[in-house]
Design brief:
The complex is a heterodimer of chains A (about 240) and B (about 140).
Chain A (H helix, E strand, L loop, with lengths): L1 E2 L8 E6 L8 E4 L5 E5 L6 E6 L4 E6 L9 E11 L2 E8 L6 E6 L6 E6 L5 E2 L8 E4 L6 E8 L10 E7 L5 E6 H6 L2 E3 L13 E2 L5 E4 L2 E8 L2 E10 L4
Antiparallel strand pairs in A: 1-2, 3-4, 4-5, 5-6, 7-8, 8-9, 9-10, 11-13, 12-13, 13-14, 14-15, 16-20, 17-19, 18-19, 19-20
Chain B lengths: L18 E8 L2 E7 L14 H9 L2 E7 L4 E6 L14 E4 L18 E4 L2 E7 L5 E7 L2
Parallel strand pairs in B: 4-5
Antiparallel strand pairs in B: 1-2, 2-3, 3-4, 6-7, 7-8
The chains are: A mainly beta (about 240), B mainly beta (about 140).
């Protein structure tokens, strides 16, 4: 392990190389606070369980987990909470054939799956789509961002947010960008924002994070499309 | 490559961290990892060597810690970020320095995913040799 000898006070940086050729597509902390999991990308889906000291505890090939051998993981398509570990992937060559898997926290076996009927959704949006879990009280919900297909027969615009029951993986609601912008949302304006939002958000639905009843999304501002600010939104599901 | 070889952006302090790549909430704090566009803050026609471009890219990463109401508490920036990126007003800022053994050249600061475990922020990273890597910030 390489250590940052000259790291500033208060930070101890560790750079830990893994014997892993594939990139890291997503990280998720497990609820015990002792482990986290890494998921690797396309073609050779693998999950690793790593300790908080950055030691690999288990290497779990996708096939051993009951996942398709050609599962293609996309960026950040992993989440974990009390109900399990969630992976979202697609089969190689299947553009919109997305499947969501819920894995047991201890055995790492697949305990639930749902195939997203993607006539309207292309999830996640390449490079941006994310999963996150709201586990604070009430019904655990899974949030998923992505792009709705322009030619989808459900007519949703470009951006979409799906809300699912985290236990059953049942879809609870779907939201498009304009709907989110109309909803109870507010920009975190103190966040070094150089632009005046003037109340108009273009939801790019980049990153997601949930806390209690609120969902944080990175979104853009109309007329300042290169700038993104986090926005908090109260889901209606 | 030494810092003196590197030319500051033409509009000093205007690198724009406009690409959030990961976000998470933990214990009432919002953590956002952002990238600057490789060329932000530089003239479009400012041609540079591969090495300089690499440094621009590596130096354009940061992690911001906020309250859930959006108050910026701290930011961590990747090596060589200063003095070329704007400091966030009111935020305590710390720079990740060179790794021991001169490993910075292999350390891509390719922060595309993260999670928080206890008081550690774990960043998915990459080394130039093609291996994946993890970077942990402790005591966040």
């Amino acid at each position: 392990m390489l250590r940052a000898a000259d790291a500033p006070s208060g930070i101890l940086g560790d750079a830990h190389a893994l014997d892993l050729q594939a990139g890291i597509e997503g990280l998720a902390a497990l609820p015990d606070g002792e482990r986290f999991c890494i998921v690797t990308p396309r073609g050779a889906c693998q999950m690793r369980i790593v300790s908080k000291t950055l030691k690999t505890l288990q290497q779990l090939p996708g096939e051993g987990l009951g996942l398709p051998a050609d599962l293609d993981m996309w960026e950040a398509c992993i989440a974990a909470g009390d109900c399990g570990i969630y992976l979202l992937g697609r089969r190689e060559g299947h553009v919109v054939d997305m499947t969501l898997y819920r894995l047991d926290l201890e055995s790492y076996e697949v305990v639930a799956t749902t195939k997203l009927e993607t006539t309207a959704y292309e999830l996640p949006k390449g490079g941006c789509g994310q999963l996150c879990l709201s586990a604070d009280g009430g019904r655990p919900r899974l949030f998923m961002s992505g792009a709705a297909r322009r030619d989808g027969d459900k007519g949703l615009p470009d951006e979409a947010l799906l809300v699912l029951d985290a236990t059953t993986l049942e879809m609870l609601s779907a939201h498009d960008g304009p709907q989110l912008a109309r909803g109870p949302c507010s920009a975190l304006e103190r966040y070094g924002c150089k632009h005046t939002p003037d109340g108009r958000f273009a939801f790019f639905l980049g990153c997601l994070a949930a806390s209690g009843d609120e969902l944080f999304v990175t979104s853009g501002i109309v007329a300042a499309s290169s700038s993104t600010i986090p926005t908090r939104w109260s889901p209606v599901a | 490559m030494i810092l003196a070889d590197l030319k500051a952006p033409s509009a000093a302090g205007l690198r724009d961290y406009n690409m959030p790549v990961a976000m998470t909430v933990h214990r009432g704090r919002l953590y956002i990892t952002e990238n600057a566009d490789e060329d932000s803050g530089y003239d479009d026609d400012d041609e540079c060597s591969e090495g300089v471009a690499y440094y621009r890219w590596v130096s354009g990463k940061r992690v911001v810690v906020l309250t859930l109401s959006g108050e910026v508490l701290r930011e961590y920036v990747s090596p060589n970020a200063w003095p070329w990126c704007p400091r966030m007003p009111g935020a305590e800022c710390q720079t990740l320095r060179r790794w021991r053994d001169g490993d910075l050249q292999k350390h891509m600061c390719d922060w595309r995913s993260m999670c928080v475990l206890g008081d550690q922020l774990i960043l998915g990273d990459a080394h130039a040799d093609g291996l994946s890597a993890l970077t942990a910030l402790q005591g966040i």
